[in-house]
Amino acid sequence: MLDYALVGRVLVALSRRSVSTQFRRAQLVMPTFVLPLMLMAVITSGTGAARDLPGYPTVDSYLSFIIAGSIIQGALLAGLTTGIALASDIESGFFDRLLAAPVPRSTLVLGRLSGTVVLGVIQSAFFLAVAFVFGASYPGGPLAILATICLAALTAAGIGGLAAAIALRTGSLSLMQSIFPFVFVLLFTAPAFFPRELLTDTLRDVAVYNPLTYVVEGARGLLGGNRELGDPWLGLAAAVGLLIATTVLATAALQERLRRT
Amino acid sequence: MSSPAVSVESLVREFKGGIRAVDGLDLQVEEGEIYGFLGPNGAGKTTTVRILTTLLRPTSGSARVAGHDVVSEADKVRRSIGVALQEAAIDPLMTGRELLQMQGALHGLKRPAARERGTTLLERVGLVEAADRRVGGYSGGMRRRLDLALALVHRPDVLFLDEPTTGLDITSRTALWREVRALNDEGTTVFLTTQYLEEAEQLADRVGIIAGGGLVAEGTPADLKGRVGKPTVHVLVGSAEAAARARTALGRLGEVQAEDRAIPGLVALPAPDGNGSLAPVVRVLDEEHIEVESIEVKSPTLDDVFLAVTGSKLEGADGA
User: Fold this and answer.
1) B51 touching A, CB under 8 A?
2) What is the pLDDT at residue A232?
3) Does residue A178 belong to the interface with chain B, where contact is any CB pair within 8 Å?
4) Residue A142 — pLDDT band, cuts 50, 70, 90?
């Protein structure tokens, strides 16, 4: 019979390790905290005039519009670093130490993903605070901010599941690191920094199939307190769907890895 | 009667391309033993340990650890064993204390109990002062000691140590041996793989030699050495002429071995009483006024055993 107390303790221990080591590794702090902020600053100063384009939604400031994109960018990168850290554990042999412990195998993946959830919470709260200091406003109110943070955390874990699946299949740290540029493909095929209506026809068609489209629009709708900017429930459905699908993928990849060895 | 701590029957592990790392291995380790598993790189030691610690599935055959099957009762095996794998896989970004507490949680300890157990083990392996430092800054010896502490968090019945002292200096190695002996005295069965003959000789109650994936010899170090030869007295004199005289004189004590052309001054004869055989040899040489350069009793070593059963010398044997 499954010992839920044990599972809980293991998840907390692995999650704690995952978060604490994240902040001790400069190569993981840079992409998850510094890069999204830099991009936010560059985009705000460089393309802020886009707000005057016809068809651009009415928002308090350009920063208030793109903060949802920056949060989701952070979530994407947090998810990717989950895979990088896992591949590093596999290559170094640390993952074997975890496998030699008498815990359900799936908790080893779930522990890592719960750490990504915590990281997603810290990261999105930090971005919202920084943007607020620089003039962003959140008419949706405190509950909307909380809901946005949850949405970001779920998205981070969802992407983390995908990255973990790749790490478990390949066990290769260098391959995980080489995936980094593809994160931007996912980000820019979603209306992260521009409204969907202003994307080119091709990009708009692609965006329909990108779950991040609904997450970023949902977050935007929440923070702006305006359903016309995006449907939060659709965003939640996309984030949860992504998380479930990729967790299944990661668990299957772990089973495959165990079967192979 | 209690079941063996480790029991392996016809174990086979085949990798891609039909390579058999373990090929029909049979062995048994009794409770409370230190079993030295000796072999060169690529002999199948690590593959065997990975199977016994449930990290690798066998292709065929069976293995039981602490009475549990490593495939069908893997979880029970994991509860009973402590594992310190080769190359101490420890997260360099964590501190020793954090690692011990995490390991405690993985073995079902609640947080206060994990903290307390961690502190006890840090004291035991002499890492109290370094406990809150990141492991990345530890020396090789400190990492190995921490690795050992991690393997002991849940008080395992059987401890697997995969080449625990490879790359360590003699001081760190000796300290680790002392700790392994102490653990064994407390009742822990130890399955130790090593490529250091001295390590096996110092620690192991019994030694198994693996080559080509199978066990080629097994027994106590004394048994194994006894199988390849008896102790001999080696007398080295200054010239071939003196050697001929010594050979004649010492012939009264026992059968002198044939002349070694490579070392013309060497005279060797059986030493049935070990060091006790030296006195009569010295007396005879003195009576004959034969000047001696050196005299010693030479016993077979595990290296000789290894050479006899595998046809090659063990890599790393000189490093011990």
Assistant:
1) no
2) 96
3) no
4) very high
Q: Indicate if B265 and B120 belong to the same structural domain.
A: no
The rounded mean pLDDT for chain B is 88
Q: Do B105 and A12 touch (CB under 8 A)?
A: yes
Residues B209, B106: one domain? yes
- Looking at residue A30, its pLDDT comes to 84
| Same-domain check for residues B157 and B192 | yes
List phi, psi (to 5°) of A190.
-120, 155
Contacts of B1 (CB under 8 A, 6+ apart): none
pLDDT at B1 over 60: no
* B308 in any annotated domain: no
Last residue of a domain, one of B201, B226, B251: B226
DSSP single-letter state for residue B317: G
CA distance to A75, A104, A114, per residue, from A153 (Å): 7, 24, 9
A92 → chain B, closest CA residue: B89
Per-residue pLDDT band at B25 (split at 50, 70, 90): very high
Instruction: Give the residue from B80, B98, B102 with the most A CB atoms within 10 Å of its CB, the best one to mutate.
Output: B102
Which chain A residues are closer than 8 Å to B85 by Cβ?
93, 96-97
Would you call B107 an interface residue with chain A, using a CB distance cutoff of 8 Å?
yes
A96 and B90 in contact by Cβ < 8 A? no
Residue B155 contacts A where some CB pair is shorter than 8 Å: no
Instruction: Let me know whether B37 and B145 are in one domain.
Output: yes
Q: In CATH, what number is assigned to the domain containing residue B115?
A: 3.40.50.300
| Structural domain containing residue B273 | 230-299
Whether the CB of B14 is below 8 Å from some CB of chain A: the reply is no
User: Which residues are paired to B137 by β-bridges?
Assistant: none
Q: Flag if A93 and B83 touch (Cβ within 8 Å).
A: no
Phi-psi region of A171 (alpha: psi -120 to 50; beta: other; left: phi over 0): left
Can you tell me which residue has the tokens 């995490």? B102
CATH code assigned at B256: 3.30.70.100
pLDDT of residue A8: 92
Three-state DSSP state, B34: strand
pLDDT at B316 exceeding the cut of 70: no
User: Could you tell me if residue B307 is inside a domain?
Assistant: no
Given this model, what pLDDT does residue B275 score? 82
Counting the structural domains of chain B, the total is: 2
Taking residues A21-50, what's their average pLDDT? 84
Closest Cβ–Cβ partner in A3, A21, A101 for B106: A101
Q: Could you tell me if B28 and B117 lie in one domain?
A: yes
- 8 A C-beta contact, residue A162 and residue A77: no
Q: What is the pTM of this model?
A: 0.83
Query: What is the model's pLDDT at position B319?
Result: 40
Q: What is the mean pLDDT of residues B140-154?
A: 90
pLDDT digits (tens, 9 = 90+) for B167-208: 788 888 888 888 899 999 999 999 999 888 888 888 999 999
Tell me the one-letter amino acid at A203.
Answer: L
Question: In terms of domains, do B266 and B201 share one?
Answer: no
Does residue B147 share a domain with residue B177?
Answer: yes
Q: Give this complex's ipTM.
A: 0.86
Q: Is B7 near chain A, with CB under 8 Å?
A: no
- Burial category of A41 from C-beta neighbours within 10 Å (exposed 0-12, middle 13-18, buried 19 and up): middle
Residue type, B277: S
Chain B residue with minimum CA distance to A25:
B93
